[in-house]
Amino acid sequence: MGEYECGCGCECNCEASANEVPEAKSAQLTWHVGDETIDYVATAGHLDIIDREKVLEGRMFNVSYVATAIDGSEVDPHARPVTFCYNGGPGSASVPINFGGLGPRRVVTHGMDFVGAGYEVVDNPGTLLRESDLVFPDALGTGWSFVAEGYDTKRVYGLEEDARTFCRAICQWLDENDRWGSPLYIFGESYGTMRSAVLMRYLGEAHVPLAGVVMLSAYYDWTQNLPGNDLYYVGMVPTFASTAQYFGLVGQGVDEDEWFDKASAFAGGEYACGIFRGDEIDPAEKDALAEHLSAFIGLPKDYLLARNNRVELEDFRKDLLASRGLVCGRLDQRFTETSLLPGQRDSFYFACEDPANHALESCWYAAFRDFLRSDLGYEGPAEYRLSVWGEIGIGWNWVHDEPGFDETTVAAPNLAYDIAVALRRSPTTKLCILGGRYDTATPWWNVRHTMSQLYLPDALKRQITWHRYGCGHMAYTDEPTLHAMAADLREFYRK
Question: Is the pTM of this model over 0.90?
Fold first, then answer.
């Protein structure tokens, strides 16, 4: 990095101190579940991210797990896949996907109950370490990753900027660890799927072969979030219907998947045709539509008519269980907590109050920090930035140059086009899309609809695997889903 003139007249190395990081730490550990064992090296440290001008862009903190032996047999690292796994936000570190579900250790969950300070950490029976070495990088500005002193954050905090940073980080890790010969996978969750959609194209353009991509709780078309777009309301209906059935309000005696499919057919058929007509719909048809919608999502017909059969997520969360004094979660609608006080009417505040997060996030964080200090001897600063959406995400640059189009999309990209381009250029790359019935952050109906609009040829569609589970946004919090997902990913990696 070198010394530079700081302007204070001293001879201090100010640049070095501003960008200083602790020394990386490693430990040899063993994962043991049933009759299976995996010996692995866990490492915590930073990657230097160097931009195209050979300038330090930032330092990206990451934790990696590299297997050395499986069931006593030595592993050939060059034949073994390596997977880069991350959460989203934008503005989220990768702790949830690490200590929640994919890493070798996991905080034990208790169904829909909150996990308190007496949490338990066990060797994870659903870990992806069985199939692949794992790297969990934190996006710049999250965790202990940071943008270099003096580097403009506008060159980092954006859709395309972030994907370029991750492309550089992956190449840097492969270089430092001599893993260019390993099959490469990326695994993104939530906004991480948007990152992956662009990243899988950028990796191709950087001539980095990509064996496979896993998208958990995917969302690609941001236009569906814009005011007045009825696809938002259509996509919510199946998830609302599953939630209402879960709480015993509708659909009694019907299989959960069958109920979701019925609601999906209604949403994409009668419901979509009705609301797409706006105020030109016949009053009698509007009334009948409200009655049918009520039978699926459990809210009264008059309530729906007053809203022109369009239900906002926050209204549904607040009102579905109001008679029980409860509000539903957003990431996973099965989680509940007591209603807000009458004076707490701030809509943005309520939107950020998510019992699905409150139930687990603090325990993941504490378990992660304890692991770093107790098992690896890694001591970072007191503040580890688990989620900084309010600082980073609100000002995120969403401008995206859509591949193959004449205009740059501003604020509302559709990243499914990046996926289509990446698959066309690399038709051997596999894609696995996973999601849950109770997720209203990234509704399952919407991602299926978005991908269907690409009209991919059959050869490319055969490269895509779909799995829908009885879970919410963070599928691994649900233990039955954790095991089902592990089996599905085993098959995906071994194809």
Answer: yes
